[in-house]
Amino acid sequence: MSILLMLVLLPAAFLLGMYLWTRRLTRQGTDMVPQLGQIVPVQGGSVHYVEKGDPANPTIVMIHGLSGQLQHFTYALVDDLAQDYHVLAVDRPGCGYSTRDAAQLATLPEQARMIHEFLKSKNVGQAILVGHSLGGAVSLEMALDYPDNTSALALLAPLTQHMPETPAVFKPLEIRTEWLRNLIGHTIAVPMARKTAPLVLKDVFAPEPAPADFLGRAGGALGLRPSAFITASQDVIGVEASMGTLAQRYDNLHVPGSILFGSEDPILSADIHGATMIEHGLGFEELERCGHMILITEPQACARFIRQIAKRTCAPTAK
Known about the structure:
Helix content: 40-55%
Strand content: 15-25%
Structural class: alpha/beta
Number of helices: 12
Oligomer: single chain
Largest sheet: 9 strands, mixed
Shape: globular
Distance between the termini: 80 Å
């Protein structure tokens, strides 16, 4: 009987220890990266956003990728673009300081709907969408679902095609059972993420180095929370379920725009996710010897790219 009791108590003690460690890391993460902007409630959750620039100018809406947050854009791009444009950088529902009420809201149509509802609350009738990685797929969904409210697409290393397999660096997120996802998220996921962060960042940024200030200035420390793991896992499954349907609709894509990729992107192939969109009316450009995180490693090139697309669509108000 004592052996049986030990077999029960030891795992329970381990999980309790991991839970307490997770809570400590979560506090450290939120202390390092406090809320930057405002929060607007939408059906199914809320959207946290940062707003800069003159609202009289054309609006640029910036949507980040998997396991990210709006600080990927405030790192360098927001202040640059806000000199000429009205810029809204959002945390996708469930990410950063935004919320999402259910795993079912992780599909692309639901994420697009929630961000569109946020934009309506801000009285934004037309927007240039800047989507990075998974945020590119959300932007494409918005362009197809709400074309009258999308003036152009400026996509940075976007996910555009259904992927037969999740990229290796994100494979641990591929959990399909909600209770297991929550258990892992509240116990072992955050301590493991803290330990493996240098290796993961090396893989995601390759062939370029990750910046030393990524955890703070780029918001990476917000990944050290149970909600970050749970949301990212939901995203992997939700996008898997809806990406194929999105890709089948590209013949109906009539919003102008273009795609910018790093030629050595290790996460998403530039040929598969960039060049293939030329036949659907989007332009395609590459940055030589660059990887997936060009919005952080090559912000000036990204800002020029976004400005080129914005100028083709509408000129900013003269100052």
